[in-house]
């Protein structure tokens, strides 16, 4: 008879195989199959896996749904990943909050996206204040702020102006920090400059 420890390890190996299968399906753009494989891995890991493994599979299901265009399912699974990340380490927390911010942004839930993006940026600061990922998270905060302000232009222009001022300051500082990373940040720097220009034009329209 198989010992409990050996049985648990066998289940963990089976879950890892399903996790890898899900990734292969995703690379092949077989999103439905990817979701099924990653969900099966998650269920096994809920019973037999570590907190990190549970977080990994929950995040994978969320990403599958992002690629499949199901915003609500991706949000639900990403929130589950956020919950698991609390015990999986600062980097896992930062990644999941940043991913959730992007999902909420795509769903036009701008207020919530700002909250999640701020959480991600703060966690990356804890992880490493000079890390490039910290400045990319700041760029995401700026993006969420500008989108929120844009949504408020007609309904609450004074608040939109205040939010734009914050976003412009943050994006300006982020542009300076990203420029120090040279070729590694050319694309991100370009996006930051484009967004900053858009935010400044929006702000000028409120004068």
Précis, in short:
The chain is mainly alpha-helical and 207 residues long. 84% of the residues lie in helices and 0% in strands. It has helices spanning 4-27, 31-48, 51-68, 71-85, 90-106, 110-127, 132-151, 157-179, 186-205.
Can you walk me through this structure?
This protein is mainly α and 207 residues long. The chain has 9 helices and no strands. The protein has helices spanning 4-27, 31-48, 51-68, 71-85, 90-106, 110-127, 132-151, 157-179, 186-205. Helix 1 (4-27) runs antiparallel to helix 2 (31-48), helix 4 (71-85) runs antiparallel to helix 5 (90-106) and helix 6 (110-127) runs antiparallel to helix 7 (132-151). The longest helix has 24 residues, at 4-27. The radius of gyration is 20 Å and the shape is elongated. The N and C termini lie far apart (77 Å). The model has no long low-confidence stretch (mean pLDDT 94).
Give a topology summary.
Blueprint lengths: L3 H24 L3 H18 L2 H18 L2 H15 L4 H17 L3 H18 L4 H20 L5 H23 L6 H20 L2
